Amino acid sequence: MRTADFDYFLPPELIAQTPAPARDLSRLLVLDRAGGCLEHRHFKELPDFLRPGDVLALNDSRVIPARLRGRNLSSAGKFEMLLLEENGVNDWWAMIRPGRRGQPGTKIEILDRNGRPSPMIATVLEVNGEGHRRLQFSGAENILTELGTLGEVPLPPYIRRPVPQGGDAERYQTVFARAGGSVAAPTAGLHFTPELLEKIRGLGVKVCFVTLHVGPGTFTPVKADEVAEHVMHEERYEISPETAGVINDAGPESRIIAVGTTTLRVLESVAGQNGGRIQAGAGRTRIFIYPPYQFKIVDALLTNFHLPCSTLLMLASAFAAPGGTGGRERMLSAYGEAVARQYRFFSYGDAMLII
Known about the structure:
The structure is a single chain. By secondary structure, the chain is an alpha/beta fold. It folds into two domains: 3-63 and 169-354, QueA-like; 67-150, Thrombin, subunit H, CATH 2.40.10. The radius of gyration is 20 Å and the shape is globular. A hairpin with a 6-residue loop joins strand 1 (27-31) and strand 2 (38-42). The strands form three sheets. It has a nine-stranded mixed sheet. A six-stranded antiparallel β-barrel has the order 5-6-7-10-9-8. A two-stranded parallel ribbon has the order 4-11. The protein is 20% helix and 28% strand.
């Protein structure tokens, strides 16, 4: 399969720039894989598609204020940095713009949200093959504890606002976020409210959580012409004994419903290593799912609408027709219907349930 096979037309005005007025007021497009039928609903109606014994698995990773601004200590040239992954205390891989100025040895003074100098200095240690910079921070015991005053919400580039708005700190975060480490939100989970989760539990659905810290692998564009040539970045995950037990103990009629592609990738990665069962523990995954793929454990997927030619659209296409290649046509047809009906796309957009 070629990457271009996953392209589609999206009017720019359908890219959501702000969240829905309330989390569960987003729309919900439901795709029935068995018959190929589509239903147009709202997210608060999700319980209509759940049944007692189902397991709803969500990603509880918390987005950190990973975008920093600074200036070159020597030239005063401006920098923008996006923290990607922590190697150790005050030791991070990051994307830097403009990259050509961030050569090893460069010292960058970190600015606060008002553009004022802070005590924090980032020194570029090295550059890897992907152009990411390794930064060593000084001026505080741990840069993580300073991000609340220095960092900004790392909204994706297709949200074309000059700076995050006040509500982004809340709305670009799930209500169940726990462990800090993501540089992008697990967006399928943004639609849930505490009340909706309680209603779902009241139906006899078991709710559990995995942790996958969303890194650049989730949103890095596919540059290879052939899908199979793309290599995913590694991302860190953790599964608790409680979650492993809930999933492994689910009955034969129970469905494992993954909320988001990140949750699905964790479950499929671990199940693929353990004969279809979930084992508690921490690890790293670079699993890349695209058609054809035979799913090991996930029975339904709740997700958002994804960018053209993205690994996320490829994953959803694989899920739309497990084990075959017909899911691409099915997904692109569903996306065409969503465009025609003015659904809102991407991180702050509407949701899709594939069952």
